[in-house]
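Lecture notes, part 5. Sequence design as translation. It can be helpful to think of inverse folding as translation between two languages: the language of shapes and the language of residues. The source text, in structure tokens, appears below.
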């Protein structure tokens, strides 16, 4: 269950990272409200997941989910580069996340 909570926390991290772009430096009210909400939910869920997961593993997976998700949404929503080296690098992050999960049995 804590792994599911950690994944949800990572998805909220993606939400606040993308929200930062839409908030335009916290100058737009509703994107700012959504960003702050996503930040709070993400951190709370990360803390809950860390009750039973090792801190290094939980943090690395949370950051990895956030990084991968943010890059993907950056490509889709903002036209960020999708060159092959960038995609392969994101693939390595995914392999690392999976490795951390498999190492924690």
């Amino acid at each position: 269950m804590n792994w599911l909570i950690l994944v949800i926390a990572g998805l909220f991290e993606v939400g606040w990272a993308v929200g930062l772009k839409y908030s335009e430096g916290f100058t737009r009210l509703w994107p700012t409200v959504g960003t702050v909400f996503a930040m709070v939910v993400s951190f709370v869920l990360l803390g809950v997941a860390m009750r039973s997961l090792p801190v290094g593993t939980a943090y690395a997976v949370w950051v990895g989910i956030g990084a991968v998700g943010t890059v993907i949404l950056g490509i889709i929503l903002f036209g960020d580069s999708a060159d092959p080296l960038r995609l392969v690098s994101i693939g390595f992050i995914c392999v690392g996340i999976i490795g951390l999960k498999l190492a924690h049995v």
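The translated text above is only one of many valid answers, since several sequences can fold into similar shapes. DSSP finds four helices and no strands in the chain.
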